[in-house]
Design a protein that fits this description.
With 391 residues, the protein is α/β, with parallel strands linked by helices. It has two domains: 99 residues, Periplasmic binding protein-like II (D-Maltodextrin-Binding Protein, domain 2), CATH 3.40.190.10; 209 residues, no CATH class. The chain is built from 16 helices and six strands. A hairpin with a 7-residue loop joins strand 5 and strand 6.
């Protein structure tokens, strides 16, 4: 045990003292924020307001077709139709002329024409069609003499309340299931990303010391198991420190931004629904299971990566062998997406039992209340498999 601690300490301090570690730890959250901002600006930069001249011969759309930040509607008289179409060939201020014929309301859906001088994006097509459809729908409803209250009543959806007879106090509606699905994806992504990032770091560390002949000196004084376990625990400590710094930085940023925008979200019904759904989740159990599978899954795959590093002579060869570690994780990740549709199905059960996929699959199931015996069995199998992999 003493040798394991010494090797872990050496690995930990060797990694954290590197300039690359300090730079990445401090800059990664900033780079993520900058990347997100750049992507957002790219989407905004590609959005321009189109001006559409509208010739409404039906007289149904004036003062009802409203402009927005993407489309500006300008109504013109029928007499200007030819001049507008001619001007469309040379002007850049106007992007299109929409001609609404004088027809019955039920004939308008397939009779409206738009002449443009530039390609009309799919989003613009959907927005214009949606705006027109809403007005036509309102006119048809008005012609039928149906009130707004009656329409709202007809459009009401069905929200199923599912009650498990074995857990009568728990009632689950569709919104709660959606929140749990989102939580499952988040937990899976965290573990998947963590294992991918730091498992490869273990492999490179083993390969580096092997090439430097340091491992030959260490093997002569410690057991292979102690060396393997020490390196894995050392890199685990590095990973936890780095993740801890990132969590603190992100939390501080969220708190700073949140305090300045608190008035924007207060009183919003959707936020209250999310908070209500989140309050029904057993966070204690989820956190406990997350930590267990997080650590065991990382140790299991780190041992695989370390074995790959010890079996090859250069980093070029590692790229071929890492496929054997990545494929099971990918299988668990994509297979777990089906778990959200049927958490108690046979595929869900076996994915959460097989040690190669259980660190991800069980985290996808845990928000949906997994039986205790399945949880204990899965943890036991993963623990034994991890010890076997490290040895």
């Amino acid at each position: 045990m003493k040798n394991i601690i010494l090797i872990a300490k050496r690995e930990f301090f060797t990694q954290v003292k590197k300039k690359s570690f300090i730079i990445l730890t401090l800059l990664t959250p900033l780079l993520i924020i900058v990347f997100g901002g750049v992507v957002s600006l790219m989407f905004q930069a590609n959005e321009t307001q189109m001006q559409i001249s509208v010739i409404d011969k039906s007289g149904l759309f004036k003062d009802k077709l409203k402009s927005d930040q993407n489309i500006r509607y300008v109504f013109s008289s029928e007499e200007t139709e030819k001049s507008l179409i001619k001007a469309l060939e040379t002007t850049e201020e106007m992007n299109g002329v929409m001609i609404i014929p004088k027809k019955e309301i039920h004939e308008l859906e397939n009779s409206i024409e738009i002449l443009t001088n530039k390609n009309l994006s799919n989003e613009a097509r959907r927005n214009i069609a949606g705006n027109i459809s809403e007005i036509i729908k309102a006119e048809k409803i008005n012609a039928l003499g149906i009130s707004t209250a009656q329409i709202e009543d007809l459009n009401k959806g069905v929200n199923l309340h599912v009650v498990n007879i074995l857990e009568k106090e728990k009632k689950q509606d569709s919104f709660l299931v959606g929140v749990k699905s989102g939580l499952s994806i988040f937990l899976m992504y965290c573990v998947f990303t963590f294992i991918m990032m730091y498992g490869i770091r273990v492999m490179r560390s083993v390969l580096e010391e092997k090439n430097n002949r340091v491992v030959e000196i260490l093997i002569s004084s410690v057991k292979p198991f102690e060396l393997m376990m020490g390196k894995i625990l050392g890199v685990t400590g590095v990973a936890l420190v780095q993740f801890g710094v990132w969590v603190v930085m992100i939390f501080a940023s969220v708190m700073t931004l949140g305090s300045s925008n608190v008035g924007m979200v207060s009183g919003v019904a959707e936020v209250q629904m999310v908070l209500s759904a989140l309050s029904q989740i057993n966070y204690g159990l989820i956190l406990f299971v997350f930590v267990i599978y997080f650590l065991l899954g990382y140790l299991f795959y780190s041992a695989m990566y370390a074995a790959i590093g010890s079996a090859v002579d250069n980093e070029t060869e590692t790229q071929q062998f890492t496929l054997f570690a990545i494929l099971p994780m990918m299988l668990g990740f994509y297979g777990s997406i089906t778990i959200m549709n049927n958490p108690d199905g046979p595929m869900s059960f076996w994915l959460s039992m097989i040690p190669f996929t259980s660190p991800i699959a069980m985290l996808a199931r845990i928000p949906f209340d997994v039986p205790v015996w399945e949880l204990v069995l899965s943890i036991g199998i993963l623990l034994v498999s991890t010890l076997g992999m490290v040895f």
